[in-house]
Amino acid sequence: MIDGFPHQPTDSFFHHAVTRLRQETALTVTASMFTLGGFPVPRVLRHLESKCLAFHPDIVVLQFGATDLVVPLRRKKNRDGSTSAAFHGRSADPATLISRVRWQFQGWVGDLLQLEPVTPVGAYLETKGEIIRTLLAHNIIPVVVSPFVFGSRRSDRNARYCAGRLQELLATLPKAYFVDAYAALDRHPRHRMLLADGGHLSLAGQQVVGDELLAVLKRIVTA
């Protein structure tokens, strides 16, 4: 969701952070963005060289989790045989009372049936660690944005857990940075931070994450 989907890229947390970084530091910042919509994170490794390392960036902002850590009641099958979540609508509809009731139902059913996320939590964390270590090996500064909150409580527990584990991992890597988007979003009501599907950020949510990312980027470039 780094490109702001389903909003416009100019509404994304990444665009917000980079725009303000240019304004507040007077630095010349060249930014590019590559998205893998619907890709679970284990599939990202095969694209890391051609879509990232080949361009020799100084800093790479990573954000994965919405596709991986969600616990769907329904799954759709991809062409390669993998599965992904079938979100309830992908429009920019705001969350309503009905949406919030649906989130509660999804969490209740997920807990009752002990449903699992699209990507096992262990595989998600292991792959993120491998990406981070690969970037560091190429003298690139990784800026890892935590998973976002979810409307469904079962999915949300995965996001909270992985945010904590990623923070612990990055604390052991002095040249890597962590953006705790989960904690920032968690300070606000879910229905303000999320759209109706309970998995994508509202414009207000994008702004909250953008502010957190900006603070970390400023710390890096002014060090």
What does this protein look like?
The protein is mainly alpha-helical and 223 residues long. Helix content is 44%, strand content 9%. The protein is built from eight helices and five strands; from the N terminus they run ααβββααβαβααα. It has helices at 13-25, 48-51, 97-113, 121-137, 153-171, 181-186, 190-193, 203-221, and strands at 59-63, 75-77, 83-85, 141-145, 177-179. The strands form two sheets. The protein has a three-stranded parallel β-sheet, sandwiched between helices. The protein is globular. Residues 78-82 have low confidence and may be disordered.
Q: SSE string, helix = H, strand = E?
A: HHEEEHHEHEHHH
Number of helices: 8
Question: Uncertain regions: pLDDT < 50 for 5+ in a row?
Answer: 78-82
Strand content: 5-15%
Order of neighbouring strands in the sheet with most strands: 1-4-5
Distance between the termini: 28 Å
Number of strands: 5
Main pleated-sheet profile: 3 strands, parallel
- Structural class call reads mainly alpha
Q: Roughly how much helix do the residues carry, as a percent range?
A: 40-55%
- Structural shape: globular
Backbone CA Rg: 17 Å
Give the integer mean of the pLDDT values: 91
